[in-house]
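Review form for a predicted model. The reviewer records the input and the model, then writes brief findings.
Reviewer: anonymous (R2)
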Amino acid sequence: MIANLSNEECIEVLSNNHIGHLAYLVGSSPYIVPVTYYYDSETNSIISYSSEGHKISAMRDNNMVAFEVDAIKSVASWRTVLAHGAFEELQGIDAKHMLHEFSQGVKKLLGREKGNEPKFISDFSSKLYAEGTPVVFRIKILDIQGKQRTS
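Model under review:
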């Protein structure tokens, strides 16, 4: 049986995962990339970071994005959430604070899942090869919906 998730169930899926798929546009071409993220309940936002590049440039040009997360146990038991939102680049102390929240939040999730918390952000998130400071951003959720299948 496939059913809709409530808003609370959608937030639960976002809160209990750390890998999602970010969809953005470059001109008229859609792109979807996997990203490590943290759901910030205080701002109802997806928090992530990246080096300067294709994805960041595209989201600066068109800040409307989609974000999808799956929680799959089996073919007959899964949940999926799709959020539409607006990209917002964080600066200065806000960026540092949210990068810290991202790191601590993902470490706690992994600690629950695997029984031990990683020590460094590079243990669970892609390493940044570019010079300089990472671009910390949030996706402010404007709309959220989800589906689930249960046997």
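Findings: The first strand starts at residue 2 and ends at 4.
Further findings: The chain has a mean pLDDT of 89.
Recommendation: see findings above.
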